[in-house]
Sequence to fold (210 residues):
Amino acid sequence: MKRRDFNKYLSVLAVPGLSGTSSGALAGAKWSLTADITEACSCSIPCPCNFGFPTDKKCEGNRLVQILSGKIDEVDLAGISFLAAFEMRKWANIYVDGKLSEKQNEGFDLIFPVAFAGFKKLSKTIERVPMSYEKTSETIKYSVPDSKVEIKKLPGLEGAEINITGLPSNNYRNYVQYQSVVHTHKSAASTWSHEKTNGFTSRMIVSGTV
Fold:
């Protein structure tokens, strides 16, 4: 796989000018969003995909996306959260936070095939489910019925967090390195359990036109 293609499958890939969105009436509409990404995957630390070099090994992950702000046309996207459980290049199950309002669910349905085209292409299921999230200064825990994740910060020099800048994607700003403590998934698609593998948080800032 070429480096320029590495985000197509497992990442939240922004595709300006994408056709086949959920509403043809939005053709030509502008969109933008800022989101927090939290992920655990089965790769060793650090995951090479995030640095532009996709692994040739099996990569299983649980990625949580929490949209902080944004709009598609005039629809507000703030507060939308979903989790993508995936095997890179193979499949993805999408779990949307069941606490979203009717307006937020409308926003998800509009933005998902536009700003998250890689996951949309691979998605086997899209479900509204209970979701939990807990963050401390050192750990993050999140779960849906089929997936459970706990990651902890990987300490750097003198115990400082490892913060990486300049990664080759708008999905990986303010990248902080974590390590998985718990990383599980069980569904019809697959079952796995990993620990001491890659984890990270980052800030996604993207925009485009439908």
Q: What stands out?
A: Residues 102-115 form the longest helix (14 residues).
